[in-house]
Specification:
Blueprint: E1 34-35, E2 41-42, E3 50-55, H1 79-95, E4 98-105, H2 109-118, E5 125-127, H3 132-137, E6 141-144, E7 147-150, E8 153-158, E9 161-166, H4 175-186
Parallel strand pairs: 3-4, 4-5
Antiparallel strand pairs: 1-2, 3-8, 6-7, 8-9
Helix pairs in contact: 1-4
Pfam family, one: Redoxin
Keywords: Antioxidant, Disulfide bond, Oxidoreductase, Peroxidase, Redox-active center
Region (Disordered): 1-23
């Protein structure tokens, strides 16, 4: 059985910043209807308020082997710890003004539903199995065993416009803490929502 929760990050190769996300801050989220694990279809462009969207390669499943050489791919391992970390920090993110929290991968909805139920996620996972959002935003990807997977990144958007991008993200289970620290530093005291002009 593959242990998906306990990972020694010091034994894994850290991803390098290849510039694959440099173009994202300031971009508008596209209008697409993407299936989510709560049974809805999510249009990123229509999301008002503050949105946190984290992209990840793929969530593994117990009793099913990960792709060959998975741990040797920089940034591949750690999707389950990342999802659990966002689960555990979801209430704190909401308290900081986050109105929408989503995970995104190119896995089909049925694989995502299994993960969302097993991990008791209080937020939906969004499927981009047809690579529509990936193509619209030119998200950084990797190919593993013939499948196109998202590289791990976190987007913060205000009223449908990306105001900050975290990339690369490592270790994955620190991703929500990165978001929280940024929000605490860049939140406008009046609106409670980061100013779109503040990107560092």
């Amino acid at each position: 059985m593959t242990n998906l929760h306990d990972v020694d990050w010091s034994q894994l190769p850290a991803p390098a910043d290849d510039g694959g996300a440099d173009h994202l801050t300031g971009r508008a989220l596209p209008s697409l209807a993407l299936p989510a694990t709560d049974g809805t279809r999510v249009d990123p462009a229509a999301l008002g308020g503050l949105t946190v969207l984290y992209a990840y390669p793929m969530t593994g499943r117990p009793h099913r082997a990960l792709p060959d050489g998975w741990d040797a791919i920089p940034g591949a391992r750690g999707c389950t710890p990342q999802a659990c970390a966002f689960r555990d920090y979801a209430a704190e993110l909401t308290a900081l003004g986050v109105t929408h929290l989503f995970g995104l991968s190119t896995q089909p909805p049925e694989e995502q539903r299994e993960a969302a139920e097993r991990l008791h996620l209080p937020f939906p996972l969004i499927s981009d199995a047809e690579l529509r959002l990936v193509a619209a935003l030119d998200l950084p990807t990797m190919t593993v065993e013939g499948r196109t997977l998202c590289k791990r990144l976190t987007l913060i958007a205000r009223d449908g416009t990306i105001v900050h991008t975290f990339y690369p993200v490592f270790p994955p289970d620190r991703a929500p803490e990165q978001v929280i620290a940024w929000l605490q530093t860049h939140t406008d005291a009046t609106s409670g929502i980061p100013d779109a002009t503040t990107t560092t």
